[in-house]
Amino acid sequence: MIKPSAASEGATEELQRVQRAEKVSELLYGAVVSASILAISSLHGPTSERVALATLGGCITYWLAHVYVDAIGGRFRDPEHSAHARLRKALIGNTEILVGSLPPIIVFVLGQLLGLGISGSAWLALWFTVAMLTGTAAYAAHLAGVRGVDLAVETLAAGVLGLLVIGLKYVLH
After folding, report:
1. What's the count of helices (H) and strands (E) in the chain, helices before strands?
2. pTM of the predicted structure, to 2 decimals
């Protein structure tokens, strides 16, 4: 048996770290989509159940559109496989967006269970999303080897994106 060299092990570890960081970015993407839909749906939802279901439904629709585009776009990268095979690969490979959309919805539902009402629960979920985006972006950037000022800038950019969603709710409120 041939033992891999230290250089090849290091390269493999680096590749795995970058791949994990890329998956984290998909989680962030799902959270931003979810929070944006929640910010809008919480303004006009007659009940908290409708707000949560509308947000979840919007996220699922968005995720399926992303999967479909990935599968169809895969035709150019992978012409040997059928659309069915590319679609199956895209369904499996893009779950992070859907998973990332769940925390804001879960926090919204928790706010409801705590008696905050629709608006209070939406604000709780949106501020949670800002914290989630900021913390997760910092983690992903750190995994990718970003340090110092660049790490601070990437972290701040994610937080600002969350604040833009809060701004959306504020402007529409």
Report:
1. 6, 0
2. 0.86
- Tokens representing 105 are 């919805």
C-alpha angle with apex 50: 24 to 110, nearest 5 degrees? 55
pLDDT digits (tens, 9 = 90+) for 80-89: 888 889 999 8
Residue 117 CB contacts under 8 Å (≥ 6 apart), including other chains: 48
How big is the CA angle at 139 (ends 9 and 169), to the nearest 5 degrees? 150
Residue 5: φ, ψ to 5°:
-75, 160
Classify 115 in phi/psi space as left (phi over 0), alpha (psi -120 to 50) or beta. Answer: left
Place of tokens 């809060």: 166
- pLDDT of 61 above 80: yes
**What is the chain's alpha carbon radius of gyration, rounded to the nearest angstrom?**
19
